[in-house]
Structures are given as C-alpha cells and as structure tokens.
C-alpha cells in the first residue's frame, strides 16, 4: 500500500498487513514518509488500535530499523527497568546504580520527557558534563566495566522509535497502548537485555488512568517480551500524586541521590526498592524478593550505591562532585510558595496538572525543539493526607523566568483539593504481573 492507502485503511478500522507496516516504518525512518503522514497513522492507531499480529509486526519493524545490540561478552544476566512515565518519577536515577552495586549489569536506553511526564535523559543531563549520546562501543564497554550505562537512543539503535517518540509527544498520541508498547519494547529489546522489569504507572499522573488499562498494557508488553524470548515482570504502581517531593530535572537528581543515602521520601524509596528487588531476582543475584531487599538496603547503608552512581557519572563525562555538592547542579535564581486557601487535609492532587505546570514553567517541552531549563521545578511541601492551614505553603516554585510564574501558581493551586478529613492511605504497589 501507498502511505495514503495505509492511513485510510487503519482510519476505517481495517487490519494492516505486516509487510505494509514494515514498509511504512522503513520509509518513515529513511525520511521518505513525512512526519505529517506518520502523525495521521498514529492518530488512526490511537482510535482504531492494533491487533496482536499488527502490534508484533509494528514492534519488530521498529526494533529492526537499526542495530540490535549483542552484549554476550558481558557476564551475567543483563536486566533493565522501564517506567511508562509519571510526575516526579526519578526512579531510574537511583535504581540503576543500586542494581549495579548489587552485581546486576544494567544496560539502559532511556527517553526524554513525553507530554506531562519527565524524562530520564533530561534529568541526567542536568548533571554538568553528563553525556547520554555515547557511541555503542562505549555503551558496551561501560556495561562490562562499570556495570551500568545510561544513554539515549543512538542513530543506530531503534531509530524509528527515536523519531516517533518525539513526534508523539507533540501530536497527542502518547497515551495509546499499542504505540506505548511498541516504543518501549523496540527500544528495550534493542539494547541487549536478557530480562526487563516494567513500572506501569496508574492514576491521574499516568498515561494509564485505570488499573484495567495498566494491566492491559503490562500484559501486552509481557506477551511481546515472551514472543521475543525475554523474561518480563511488571509492577503496577500508584501515580495519583507525584512520586517523592521533587518535580523538575536537577531537583529530582538531588532527591535520587538522597534516596541512595537513605534520606528520601518513603513513597519514592519504597517504589525504587520494590522495582530494583525484581531486577535482582531476574538477574540471579537474589533467590527471593526478601533477600533482594536486604541486599539493596545494605548497599544504601554501606555507601556502595551512591559510590556506584558517582562512578557512572564520571564514566559518562559528568561531574562526580555534584553528587556530594548539590550547589554544582543547576540552581534556580528565585523561589515563591503557593499558599493554601483553606484549612483541613490534602485529599487529592491532580498529578497530570502538576506535570503540565512543570512544562509551562520550562521543566518540560511544549514543542519538539523546546529547550528545557534544568534548574526549574517544584518542591511539594504538602502531599495527600497531610494537614494544612490557610496560608501554609503547599508547593515551592523554583524559577528563572518570572513570566509564567503566575499562571503556574494558579495551575498548582487548582491541582490541590482539601477536605476536613484525611483520606485512607492507598497502596503504592497495586499489582504484580509476570
């Protein structure tokens, strides 16, 4: 089919042949299919979906659009983790050095922010000098020698997804299960892993708003992994409020380092330990989740986890001194607090609204070519269930450009709801699949 015919067929609910899907994605990767036609097809997929055969063909075409890395010379079971995206989700920054400190090789190809959610690469690049665009030869070497490497998609690894990832961000086609699944799995299967742990976020700050949708996405990715010969485990985790207290790139780096020192908020710490424990079990470094938790807690206590992060930062060209001296990270020039207008307890936070406020402040992208300010963001001074009095600070805004601050302040105030009673605590880990 010509591109027009393929778009029309999917728009009308028809099934696409694997060969046509492969040809379309190959042509898009080479530049013969323009962005506007891929945008149209993605929107058709958003409304019409892909069946199992179509999804398999789409994922394989994206995977094989570039080099599929072989890390056979790296001893051990290579395990990675992927999050479907949330607000304040800096788990990868602490999970990767934790797992590597416990002997699990972690080859991690990450992405940038999508929509209202932050991106691991943007956070890493807020560390002065940190390079995420290393050549594949360095990636292989660092996984072998350091035990971990965190890079972005190179020109040779899943190039179709690299182009499509940025396009989906600005065409309202991010929260689509087939496109999420194919993006994640093509990227992850290309990086040379043996096993994968998925963090599927659920709630107001996630692309999956319900447990049912999150479960469907998790099962879909587990199925694709099994078809490709990889072990995949998934945890459904709560995203009905931001994870931890920090939202914004450099601010989240600080909180990630604090987690490795045992000083981070309890919710962020728990989710990180739960996901990293799964990695240790899949990687053969622990016989049970309980044993894995003990090893992880020991790595935090004895300092080996934070030392591993410093080693990773230095190996990738970053300033390891910034892990000890946070003043070497980007700092916002000004701060202002959002004050509560009523008394009671925080009963809810519209987490997606918080993420969009961060984008408006400059911590995320409004367009593909938008520049991110790594210093700006929020500190959440009150979270769900915590008491508040009228005039108390709810959120601290860290900013450089004063122009968007009043709009951001209004967005954040509207995102908070208060009531006379604290809500019942909700579980952080909703379900485990795999």
UniProtKB/TrEMBL annotation:
Residues 345-419 form the Pyrimidine nucleoside phosphorylase C-terminal domain. Keywords: Glycosyltransferase, Transferase. It catalyses: thymidine + phosphate = 2-deoxy-alpha-D-ribose 1-phosphate + thymine. One of its GO terms (molecular function) is 1,4-alpha-oligoglucan phosphorylase activity. Its EC number is 2.4.2.4. InterPro entries: Glycosyl_Trfase_fam3 (IPR000312), Glycosyl_Trfase_fam3_N_dom (IPR017459), Glycosyl_Trfase_fam3_N_dom_sf (IPR036320), Nuc_phospho_transferase (IPR035902), PYNP-like_C_sf (IPR036566), PYNP_C (IPR013102), Pyrmidine_PPas_bac/euk (IPR018090), Pyrmidine_PPase_CS (IPR017872). SUPFAM superfamilies: Nucleoside phosphorylase/phosphoribosyltransferase catalytic domain, Nucleoside phosphorylase/phosphoribosyltransferase N-terminal domain, Pyrimidine nucleoside phosphorylase C-terminal domain. GO terms for biological process: pyrimidine nucleobase metabolic process; pyrimidine nucleoside metabolic process. Coiled coil: none annotated. GO terms for cellular component: cytosol. Homodimer. Belongs to the thymidine/pyrimidine-nucleoside phosphorylase family. This is thymidine phosphorylase. It comes from Cystobacter ferrugineus.
């Amino acid at each position: 089919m010509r591109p027009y015919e393929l778009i029309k067929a999917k728009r009308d609910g028809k099934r696409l042949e694997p060969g046509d899907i492969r040809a379309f994605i190959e042509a898009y990767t080479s530049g013969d299919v323009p962005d506007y036609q891929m945008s149209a097809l993605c929107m058709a997929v958003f409304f019409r979906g892909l069946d199992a055969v179509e999804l398999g063909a789409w994922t394989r075409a994206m995977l094989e659009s570039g080099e599929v890395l072989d890390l056979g010379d790296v001893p051990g079971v290579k395990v990675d983790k992927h999050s479907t995206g949330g607000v304040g989700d800096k788990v990868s920054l602490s999970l990767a050095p934790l797992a590597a400190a416990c002997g699990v090789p972690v080859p991690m190809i990450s992405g940038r922010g999508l929509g209202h959610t932050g991106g691991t690469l943007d956070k890493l690049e807020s560390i002065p000098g940190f390079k995420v665009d290393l050549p594949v030869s360095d990636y292989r070497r660092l996984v072998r020698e350091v035990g971990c490497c965190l890079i972005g998609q190179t020109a040779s690894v899943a190039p179709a997804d690299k182009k499509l990832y940025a396009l989906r961000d600005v065409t309202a086609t991010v929260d689509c299960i087939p496109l999420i699944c194919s993006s994640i799995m093509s990227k992850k299967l290309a990086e040379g892993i043996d096993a994968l742990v998925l963090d599927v976020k659920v709630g107001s700050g996630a692309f999956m708003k319900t447990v049912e949708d999150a479960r469907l996405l998790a099962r879909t990715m587990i199925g694709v992994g099994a078809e490709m010969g990889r072990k995949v485990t998934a945890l459904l985790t709560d995203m009905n409020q931001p994870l931890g207290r920090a939202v914004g790139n450099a601010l989240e780096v600080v909180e990630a380092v604090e987690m490795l020192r045992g000083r981070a908020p309890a919710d962020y710490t728990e989710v990180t330990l739960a996901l990293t424990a799964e990695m240790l079990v899949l990687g053969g470094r622990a016989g049970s989740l309980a044993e894995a938790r003990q090893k992880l807690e020991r790595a935090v206590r004895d300092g080996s986890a934070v030392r591993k992060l410093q080693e990773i930062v230095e190996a990738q060209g970053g300033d390891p001194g910034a892990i000890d001296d946070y003043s070497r990270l980007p700092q916002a020039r000004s701060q202002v607090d959002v004050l509560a207008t009523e008394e009671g307890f925080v009963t809810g936070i519209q987490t997606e609204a918080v993420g969009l406020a961060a984008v408006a402040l400059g911590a995320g992208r409004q367009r593909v070519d938008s520049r991110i300010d790594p210093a700006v963001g929020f500190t959440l001074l009150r979270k769900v269930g915590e008491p508040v009095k009228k005039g108390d600070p709810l959120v601290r805004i860290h900013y450089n450009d004063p122009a968007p601050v009043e709009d951001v302040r209004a967005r954040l105030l509207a995102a908070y709801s208060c009531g006379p009673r604290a809500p019942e605590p909700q579980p952080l880990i909703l379900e485990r699949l795999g």
